[in-house]
Design brief:
Layout: E1 10-14, E2 17-21, H1 22-27, E3 34-38, H2 44-55, E4 60-61, E5 74-80, E6 83-90, E7 93-97, H3 99-105, E8 110-117, E9 119-124, E10 127-132, E11 136-140, E12 145-149, E13 152-159, H4 165-170, E14 177-178, H5 182-197, H6 203-222, H7 237-249, H8 258-265, H9 269-275, H10 282-298, H11 307-313, H12 319-330, H13 334-342, H14 351-364
Antiparallel strand pairs: 1-2, 3-5, 4-7, 5-6, 6-13, 7-12, 8-11, 8-13, 9-10, 9-12, 11-14
Length: about 375
């Protein structure tokens, strides 16, 4: 799916501007690729706004009591096949993932959440959960929540819904669940070790790291959840996955409307609407997938097609309508991506626009799974 415009490069601030570490891309042939963000190097008065903007595509960071007194935060992310591991260090504060954000971005991953130091309190529609250092928990990105954290060092393993049917059946998308048992603690120790080893692991280690992660999830998590039944009828995962595959195969078809999709997937209109309700509706989901696919092409330095042609390929009636939808989705224009690629990553826009571009690329890595 979608790629960061700088091809899984490292992002950092230099002289108040977000810059790309070209050496990181060069090293990707030997070291597992990483995307990184930090507020280090920014003036203290700009740090909070920078981190808030970085998180904005999926999480709303609520205003700090002293937002201009400094906010040192960082995030690192590694892609491991169908999984993504993020490490975040951030100061005390409140944050939330709203129902609007859930509908807007359509991310529905399970997140295995480990606080390495500090404490986090999360509130959902069905209850609250407080987790301290060393306690593993799991929640769904498909459910809104509000949370508070102390100064924190946090690991999060993002697992796509559908990868482990046992987990999908056992867990509720509105629930944050602590896994504070021997197998949960074993998995937590594995995540800590994985995060410590990834910076020195090579691409040749990647397949084995993915296999080890799959095995430990199956052994420590999926097997211990077999006896649970969440009663969460919000998702019919096998059917949803099939419908999403059909959509993906027909993104270039002007005839991909609701009636035809129901016929191709063998589902009723009411079931189709119910399945895509968390994504803001099936029409919204299809448009986002088309925009993500178009973004892939625009960020590909080997693609020489005109923007208008790409827009037509993905069923936008004209380039201006495509540009408006693209800017609304990503916060920057199709031509901004082209300029970025043509310049080899040189910042051609102000740092706030450039930050949006790199931020979206970072979070959109989750759509690769």
């Amino acid at each position: 799916m979608n790629k960061a415009p700088a091809s899984a490069c490292q992002a950092g601030w230099v002289d108040g501007r977000l810059a790309i570490d070209a050496d990181e891309t060069a090293r990707s042939n030997s070291v597992i690729a990483k995307v990184a963000f930090t507020t280090e190097g920014l003036p203290p008065s700009e740090q909070f706004d920078a981190y808030r903007t970085y998180c904005a595509p999926v999480i709303e960071i609520l205003p700090n009591e002293r937002p201009h007194s400094g906010y040192e935060a960082s995030c690192e992310m590694w892609m491991l096949g169908n999984f993504a591991l993020r490490r975040i260090r951030a100061p005390e504060g409140y944050f939330e993932r709203s129902a609007l954000q859930v509908r807007r971005d359509g991310l529905d991953h399970w997140v295995f959440n480990l606080v390495r130091s500090g404490e986090q309190k999360a509130q959902t529609a069905v209850g609250a959960l407080t987790t301290g250092a060393g306690v593993l928990s799991v929640f769904s990105f498909a459910g809104p929540y509000e949370a508070y954290r102390t100064n924190i060092d946090w690991l999060g393993l993002f697992v796509p819904r559908g990868a482990f049917p046992t987990i999908d059946r056992a867990l509720n998308h509105n629930q944050h669940l602590a896994l504070d048992n021997p197998l949960g603690r074993l998995f937590a120790a594995y995540l800590v070790s994985l995060a410590e080893q990834l910076p020195s692991m090579t691409e040749s280690d990647l397949s084995r790291a993915i296999e080890a992660t799959q095995t430990i999830i199956t052994t420590c998590i999926a097997s211990s959840l077999k006896a649970l039944d969440s009663g969460d009828s919000y998702f019919d995962m096998p059917r949803l996955r099939r419908v999403r595959d059909i959509i993906d195969q027909n993104l270039g078809s002007w005839n991909l409307h609701t009636a035809r999709l129901c016929k191709l997937a063998g589902v009723s209109r009411s079931n189709l609407y119910r399945m895509f309700e968390p994504y803001g509706g099936v029409v919204r989901y299809i448009q986002r997938q088309r925009l993500l696919r178009a973004h892939d092409l625009l960020a590909d330095p080997t693609c020489i097609r005109h923007i208008g042609q790409i827009a037509n390929d993905y069923c936008f009636s004209d380039a201006s309508a495509f540009s408006r939808a693209f800017r609304h989705e990503f916060g920057y224009s199709p031509s901004d991506v082209r300029k970025w690629v043509e310049s080899g990553g040189t910042p051609l826009v102000d740092h706030r626009s450039l930050q949006k571009m790199t931020t979206a690329g970072s979070w959109n890595m989750l759509y690769q799974v």
